[in-house]
Amino acid sequence: MTTASESAPSFQIFRMKDAPKLMESGCMSIEPITPAQRAGVTKAVQAGYTEGDEVRVLVQMPGFSLTQAWMKKNYPLALHSHDSDCMYYVVAGTTRVGTEELGPGDSFFVPANVPYTHKPGPDGVEVLEIRHETSFNFVNLSKTEAFWDKAAETVAANLEDWRVAKRPSEIK
């Protein structure tokens, strides 16, 4: 028989400086994409897409994960879904979810398998992503060539600003 103290996690401290980048952590799997999506993603990456965000896994332990995402201004986040529920908390900056502008202290909840995106504001956005899962998938639902062409244009237009951008929490 297992007692509560044997199955409960022990006290732990997690430090930002030790947090791995999302893709290094192994907690997110990418679902297969179509050839058109692959070509579009490749085009956006070649334009500098990966410089538009920084995502770190702060906590990954049984029953919990906490991720911090910084998306720079105008980052073209693809319409997507995940196979786990997620609560988002805006730490700094702003983002638009549908018709709603969200700022520091605001939150939004996305149930598992529900397509969504959000658009970072003029200073970008920093969010915390809170899940009851230690791993989740990414299903890319931005399927059209038009989306990816526009994304690559947006990346190219913002790349120099992204390279010198400060986190919204650092802007005074």
Structure characterization notes:
With 172 residues, the protein is of the alpha+beta class. It has a domain at 15-39 and 52-143: Jelly Rolls (Sandwich), CATH 2.60.120.10. Helices cover 24% and strands 34% of the residues. It has 4 helices and 9 strands, in the order ααβαββββββββα. It has helices at residues 4-7, 22-25, 35-47, 145-164, and strands at residues 28-30, 53-61, 64-71, 80-81, 86-97, 100-102, 107-110, 119-131, 136-140. The strands form 2 sheets. Strands 2, 3, 5, 6, 7 and 8 form a 6-stranded antiparallel beta sheet that branches. Strand 2 (53-61) and strand 3 (64-71) form a beta hairpin. Helix 3 packs parallel to helix 4 (145-164). The longest helix has 20 residues, at 145-164. The N and C termini lie far apart (55 Å).
Summarize the structure.
The protein is of the alpha+beta class and 172 residues long. It has four helices and nine strands, in the order ααβαββββββββα.
Give short descriptive properties of this protein.
Jelly Rolls; 172 residues; six-stranded antiparallel beta sheet; globular; alpha+beta; three-stranded mixed beta sheet
User: Can you tell me the CATH architecture of the domain at 15-39 and 52-143?
Assistant: Sandwich
Q: How many individual β-strands?
A: 9
Instruction: State the CATH superfamily name of the domain at 15-39 and 52-143.
Output: Jelly Rolls
- How much strand content do the residues show? 25-35%
What's the arrangement of secondary structure elements?
Layout: H1 4-7, H2 22-25, E1 28-30, H3 35-47, E2 53-61, E3 64-71, E4 80-81, E5 86-97, E6 100-102, E7 107-110, E8 119-131, E9 136-140, H4 145-164
Parallel strand pairs: 1-9
Antiparallel strand pairs: 2-3, 3-8, 4-9, 5-6, 5-7, 5-8
Helix pairs in contact: 3-4
